[in-house]
Amino acid sequence: MEFDILFNNLTNPTLLFFMLGIIAALVKSDLEIPASTSKFISLYLLFSIGFKGGQELANSPWSSEILASLLFGIILASLIPFYTFFVLKRKLSVYDAGAIAAAYGSVSAVTFVASMSFLEMQKLTAGGHMVAVMAFMESPAIIVGVILMNKFDKDSKSTQSFNLGKVLKHSLTNGSVLMIIGSLIIGVISDSKQAEGIKPFTTDIFKGFLALFLLEMGMVTAKRFKAFKHYGWFAGAFAIVIPFINGCVVAYVSQFVTTDIANRFVFAVLAASASYIAVPAAMRLAAPKADPGLYLPMALGLTFPFNITLGMPIYFFIVSQV
Predict the structure, then answer these.
(1) I need a surface site. Which of 100, 169, 188, 315 has the fewest CB within 10 A?
(2) pTM value?
């Protein structure tokens, strides 16, 4: 692997702010970002990436590759929770296995945003339709996770249709999902000339807000990691090994869907990421018995840091070599 790519990623200012957040939490600093400010920054990031993706999609003719990419994303979001559920069920309860499988089959919008920043460092740009791919990958994993929980939970008295209806509605109306899908649609239908007027807001200040958001993510990660320690080696190993395998396999297999290196890299990152926003919110309805103190720290405390530090350079190396 080209170690200069790894070094450049580790010295990326946005990633360094993430590490600063971890240090701040470890030394018990009073550094904090107000909850309202944090929510605004996260909405801004989703708005910016969705709108820019919509603009790029509007200027790109629909093709068989775009349709294949959307279908490939949905398949990934369905297969990953299916096989991981049976791996997890060997050591964990049906509820915990289903919730974790749904989280790892779904995607992390923040990891997606970080992948855009990584590509920019390599002077590459992913297609605008990859934003739509990410949005389409949110719900299938949740649905598969709920189906598997209902099927293998012998004590469950609720019906699948009832649970699935509520969970599907909640996943589609979740704030993060609604923001990125809505921004994508607005970006598609907006006049490109008029959209230039908000370009300084959607593009120029993007990295600054991303750095602040990752600063807070670093502080949250350190706190979640402490709560995660008593769950043992199995959950910790899963949170790193399984996403890494998913990312590497998809980095290779994606060549049969698209030849674009940037798009293949994004596919690998999406397959390796884990949701810690949309899925936990949906699991409160679908699996109240699942322990959020397990699947949240796994996704945010281990998988997210691994992907943005070591995972991305490895996935990029694979797609650039194959």
Answers:
(1) 169
(2) 0.79
Q: Cα separation of 202 and 223, whole Å?
A: 31
DSSP symbols for 33-74: --HHHHHHHHHHHHHHHHHHHHHHHHTS---HHHHHHHHHHH
Residues 6+ apart with CB under 8 A from 120: none
Contact criterion met (CB below 8 Å) for 80 and 104:
yes
Task: Using 70 as the pLDDT threshold, list the residues of the chain that sit under it.
Answer: 1-9, 155-172, 174, 176-177, 224-231, 281, 285
Identify residue 124 by its one-letter amino acid code: L
The tokens for 282 are: 């949906």
* Residue 89 contacts residue 101 (beta carbons within 8 Å): no
Q: Which amino acid is at 48?
A: S
One-letter amino acid of 87: V
- The alpha carbon dihedral of 248, 250, 256, 258 has a sign of negative
**How far is residue 5's CA from residue 186's CA, in Å, rounded to a whole number?**
35
The predicted structure's pLDDT at residue 132: 84
Q: At 100, list the tokens.
A: 């974790």
Q: Sign of torsion, CA 192 121 308 78?
A: positive
Dihedral angle over CA of 44, 62, 130, 55, nearest 10: -20
Residues 302 and 253: their CA atoms lie apart, in Å, by 25
Alpha-carbon span 166 to 151, nearest angstrom: 17
Does residue 69 contact residue 126 with C-beta atoms inside 8 Å?
Answer: no
The 10s digit of each residue's pLDDT in 162-182 is 456 666 666 667 676 678 778
Backbone angles phi, psi at 273, to 5 degrees: -85, 170
